[in-house]
């Protein structure tokens, strides 16, 4: 894998590290040891490619839904809400139970990793670019085998609350507030970066659980304790916050700016 769009056999033989591994055993080890976790959609898309994908003309046409229509659709058991705005917007107010996957981050990979493919998807976008963002999100979702996006909320969360519907929040903590809260007894810091990132540098008291693994490992944490979620920037940790909220965690905060901001503020290393 590389950034070049084309290459030559001679160039690859000379410079490609994988082609310069001496011995079969060493080559096998390089491909099987220390590999990063594979997103859910890797296996799913392999099956889709074997069978042949659905034709675009057969897929749902994205609908613009009023708050009342959106509310009615989300009551169905086979439907989920995916908020694709920035983590600051999501933290300010969002529809309870929704997933947060920032479209400015690694949206296709994150969506393909955590969203259940058997569910219809309702989108919450940023106004006034809601239609463009929704169409962009649908394209990304289809690329990872998620073909069931059916509509987006007209007017965003502003229209939602103006129609009288409930919202939830995730406090966005600056590095200074993260540092202060970590001094309080009982606060749990969950570092949701990959293990290799965590091993390079991390806050000593942090518990390392990969964002996507919180779907199955949240039971390792105490939902009654104040929980701060941190990644490198604040984007993955916001997704992690939404996963914890879905599982009954009530006191969840996102470390805005992530580890990068915490270091820039001078709090790490101590």
TrEMBL record:
A Pfam family hit: Rhodanese
InterPro entries xrefs: GlpE_sulfurtransferase (IPR050229), Rhodanese-like_dom (IPR001763), Rhodanese-like_dom_sf (IPR036873)
Occurrences of domain Rhodanese (ranges): 75-169, 183-264
PANTHER family registered for this protein in UniProt: FAD-DEPENDENT OXIDOREDUCTASE, PYRIDINE NUCLEOTIDE-DISULPHIDE OXIDOREDUCTASE
Name under which the protein is recorded: Rhodanese-like domain-containing protein
